[in-house]
Amino acid sequence: MKLGTLPKFPLAHLPTPLTVARNLSAALGGPEIMVKRDDLTGLALGGNKTRKLEYLIADAQAQGATHVITVGAAQSNHCRQTAAAARVAGLNCVLVMNASSEDPDIQGNLLLDHILGAETRIVTDKAARQPMTIQVAEELRAQGYVPYQIPGGGSNAIGSSAYVAATYELMAQLVESGASPTRLYTTSSASGGTHAGLALGAKLAGVPYSVHGVSIEGRADHLKKTVITPLANQTAEYLGLDVRLSEDEVIIHDAYTGPAYGVATEECLEAIRLCARTEALLLDPVYTAKTMAGLIDHIRTGEIGADETVMFLHTGGVPAVFADTASIIPAMQAASAS
Ligand SMILES: Cc1ncc(COP(=O)(O)O)c(C=O)c1O
Questions:
Q1: Which of 55, 121, 220, 323 shows a CA-CA span of 20 to 30 A to 80?
Q2: 172-188 confidence digits (pLDDT tens)
């Protein structure tokens, strides 16, 4: 397997901690809950993209890039971490972002993009990101620069390889701690690199746990068929592996997505409150709180037994709370008053 020899530009503080959330377990009257803290990867407020960017930035450097270009929503954690990674690597960064207005609030991740000095191009239609990316790349080439395009979420075979590697990091921690968890909960998204890498890693490494993706956008069948399984298999091919995943080996729960990407649900606001007030564990309303809402519901409904040990991958994203105070503040106040 090529994994050990892939070029890597060091950005993350690894291994990230694997902690035990005793107060949260007690509050739920349930299983032992372990938290893999990829929110603590350490690059400009951290998150899951830092691992992927170690491989993507190394590839950009190998291709002689002067600039990286990537895409996301205005509150994209991926864009913020890419802007930060580019700075550390001495590269320039252009972010093509969709927002509901041409002049979005400069808050949360977008504020950090500005502090990091990334160039931002805002489009008001998500479909306009790709043509704008092509235009930016052409502009840069015309000026003699070498642009390198990083896909949304850093989710291609190069980026997903990082979560195959993370599986081995996690396994070493499990062996050291003696824990034998039955499940790992992670966000499953339409970019999908984290879930795809973890699902492939789990099959390869023969882990004791099953990987449970919680969808934050899109139906489970659609994500399995069009995103997670194909990306896991492209990653396997990229790594020179014979192993392949079938759709029925991929587990996705889509009951916690809510009406749309980025729209906070009651359950996710409750997860934010509960994790903060039991563990001082901060979650974001777009990704991690919806994923935690799935885990909490599975404990409450008995799908996860009280004698099991389960893991939650904290993928970061907390800067987004500063951009969604309209949902978060009333939910926290209501809970304090009750
Ligand atoms: C905090 C957070 N969690 C999870 C994800 C999803 O990761 P992936 O793109 O690998 O599916 C993202 C993607 O932007 C994210 O920012």
A1: 220
A2: 999 999 999 999 999 99
For ligand 1, whether the C-beta of 193 sits within 6 Å is yes
**What is the architecture, at CATH level 2, of domain 49-154?**
3-Layer(aba) Sandwich (3.40)
Q: How far is CA 38 from the centre of its chain?
A: 9
Q: Catalytic: 100?
A: no
Q: Which one-letter amino acid corresponds to residue 174?
A: L
Q: How remote is the C-alpha of 54 from its chain's centroid?
A: 14
Considering the candidates 25, 76, 160, 215, report the single residue annotated as catalytic: 76
Work out which ligand 1 atom sits closest to the CA atom of 316: 1
Fold category of 3-47+155-337 in CATH:
Rossmann fold (3.40.50)
- The pTM score is 0.98
CA 152-157-163 angle, 5° bins: 90
Report the distance separating Cα 7 and Cα 243, nearest Å: 22
Residue nearest to atom 13 of ligand 1 (CA): 153
Parse the chain into domains and list their residue ranges.
Answer: 3-47+155-337, 49-154
**Spacing, Cα 144 to ligand 1 middle (Å):** 33
Per-residue pLDDT of 9-61, as tens digits, reads: 999 999 999 999 999 999 999 899 999 999 999 999 999 999 999 999 999 99
Which residue has its alpha carbon closest to ligand 1 atom 6? 189
CB atoms within 10 A of CB 329: 11
Cβ count near 210 (within 10 Å)? 14
Does residue 317's CB lie within 6 angstroms of at least one atom of ligand 1?
A: yes
Instruction: Looking at the chain, list the stretches that DSSP marks H as alpha helix, in order from N- to C-terminal side.
Output: 22-28, 49-62, 77-89, 108-115, 129-142, 157-177, 193-205, 220-223, 229-238, 266-279, 288-300, 325-337
What is the greatest pairwise CA distance in the chain?
62
The answer to whether the 3-47+155-337 and 49-154 domains have the same CATH topology is yes
